[in-house]
Amino acid sequence: MLKISSDGRKAALDMRLVQPGTPTGTTKIDAVADLVARTWERTRDNVYLDPTTGEESPVRGALQLVFCDLGVPGDKWNVYATLRDELYARGLPEGSVRFAHEARNDAEKGRLFAACRAGHVAVLIGSTGKMGVGTNVQARAVHLVDMDAPWRPADVEQRHGRIIRQGNQNPEVAITQVVTGHSFDAYMWQTLEYKSKFIAQVLSGKMTGVNEIEEIGSDTLSFAEVKALASGNPLLLERAKATQELAKYQRLKSAHLANQRSLTGTVSMSGRDLETTRQLIPVMDAAATTVVSTRAEAFAARIEGHLYTSRSDAAHALGRLLRPGLVRPSDNFGEIAHLGGHTITAHHDGATLYLEVPAAPLAIATVALHDLTGPLEPGFVIRLENLVRTIPEAANRLHVREHELVDRIAAAQKTLTVPFAHDEALAKAEARYDQVTRDIEAAAKQPAIATSPAGPIASPDPSPTSAAAAATQSTPTMPAPHPAPGVSPPPARPIWERVAGPAPPPVARQADTSASPPAPQP
To answer: Does residue 150 form part of some domain?
Structure first.
């Protein structure tokens, strides 16, 4: 697969990268040269400010960036040198086309980039690695061309970040992605589409299904569009747009249903909490009314039938009561004291001592057993006092909790009655997607090749075939010759027009007297 991918990318760019000397007609190099030359002609007199002085620069003209990761400069035939020659043949001045690969160190790179910013370079050609991060040439950049597709969406973002960048003096810029119909370009852009969707899904933090990823990123449709264009079937572009539109409303529908399920759960759980709260309220209210203050001199605690008015004495008494049980694996002490108008019980599980007020279910405190290794201090008694003293506060919190639960249930029930706001739009998106899919299926059933006096004629919507299959189904034709030096080739047509070809001439047919229906026209 690595070999197939490598040769496929090269073939989509130029067959001469796969087999040097291969006869070829109009290639990406010609299309890019035409496009760049037209843009240069249109922007050659643009006025820009000098980046160092801030004054109007005497040098006119914009900068164009061309990214190409394959066919880099070398001793053999390469894309870079051929594109430069084609641009010179179309009128660009000698020396105005430079390669990022010319800069062999940081100093040379700095001088090259400075020349680009100053207007001395009209076209800078480079790879993602050579002209990606750190390329500060955006001051005059007006047009960027992707001649091939990298492997990662981040590489596309880095490429486009060279022109969509702060400091660019152009209010508007253009980005062109050049693809070859029915080539490996479709696979490359499809791979970028898949990766873009997955990465955007992960970064969003909203995974809606184990086996599904959703179109979220703003670049995803752009990749899908390029893939559809490269496939040679414009209907695929319509389906890409319809798919995104449908996915958007399906996500909204899924979010609405998930919210409805969440609200249903909220009503259920809050209802149970409300029932429990309402059961506790009278119990805690009754316990709160019997709380007696033990502050300062009002302290009094009854332990094992003895009344103590000193916290230190009460602590020693509790120590004598609890000490034997603390060394056992677990023990239930039952009532250990009566203070503040309430009885306090205790038990432990071998690690934690639990202090509770039976009359007030929410009055619970815990103490780690390793904190009770020495004699009990008055602070332990104060903890018991606080346990009883906070019973009225706990009762008041229950009333607040009751009101909150009532409001939450009411709000959830009201929202549950709201229908999905985009049902009509979802239905239209589904209908559009289904219609485009049917159109694609219908087009695929049309004959791929028709016979005419001039030879095979491709249908307007040919079905994709392998290279081997295409070779067996079509008659070899002579490739279009290269234009003579200094002569511009005819302007490139849209991909689907080049694939489909011109309308076929009328085909003479012998009269058919059978009852079978006439053959469909290609």
So the answer is: yes
User: Locate tokens 């057993």: which residue?
Assistant: 369
Matching residue, tokens 């005059």: 140
Q: What is the largest CA-CA distance in the chain?
A: 125
- 365: Cβ–Cβ under 8 A, 6 or more apart, which residues? 354, 355, 356, 383, 384, 386, 387
* 156 in the same domain as 268: no
Nearest to 392 by CA among 417, 414, 359: 359
Asked if 384 contacts 375 with a C-beta cutoff of 8 angstroms, the reply is: no
Residue-number span of the structural domain to which 479 is assigned:
448-494
Structural domains of the chain, count: 3
Looking at the fold, whether 267 and 404 belong to one and the same domain comes out as yes
DSSP states of 355-385 as a string?
A: EEETTEEEEEEEEEGGGGSSPPPHHHHHHHH
Here the contacts of 93-99 (C-beta below 8 Å, separation 24 or greater) are 93/122, 96/120, 96/121, 96/122, 96/123, 97/121, 97/122, 97/123, 97/125, 98/123, 98/124, 98/125, 99/73, 99/124, 99/125, 99/126
- Answer for the pair 112, 126: CB distance below 8 angstroms, yes or no: no
Which one, of 157, 177, 169, lies nearest residue 32 by Cα?
A: 177
Cβ neighbors of 504 (< 8 A, separation 6 or more) are 450, 452, 454, 457, 522
- Nearest one of 197, 365, 151, 398 to 279, comparing CA atoms: 398
Nearest to 26 by CA among 482, 375, 511: 482
Residues 55 and 82 in one domain: yes
DSSP class of residue 491?
Answer: P
Residues 256 and 147 in one domain: no
Same domain for 274 and 150: no
| Distance separating alpha carbons of residues 287 and 290, to the nearest angstrom | 6
3-state secondary structure 317-361: HHHHHHHHHHCCCCEEEEEEEEECCEEEEEEECCCEEEEEECCEE
Strand-pair category, 342-348 with 331-339: antiparallel
> How many distinct helices (H) and strands (E) make up the chain?
15, 13
Q: Are 505 and 452 in contact (CB under 8 A)?
A: yes
* Binned average pLDDT, 10 residues per bin, the chain of 522 residues: 86 90 85 96 92 86 95 91 95 94 90 92 94 86 94 90 91 92 84 80 61 52 67 74 87 92 94 95 95 92 94 93 86 92 93 94 92 88 94 95 95 92 93 91 69 34 33 32 40 35 36 38 38
Residues contacting residue 393 through CB under 8 Å, at least 6 positions apart: none
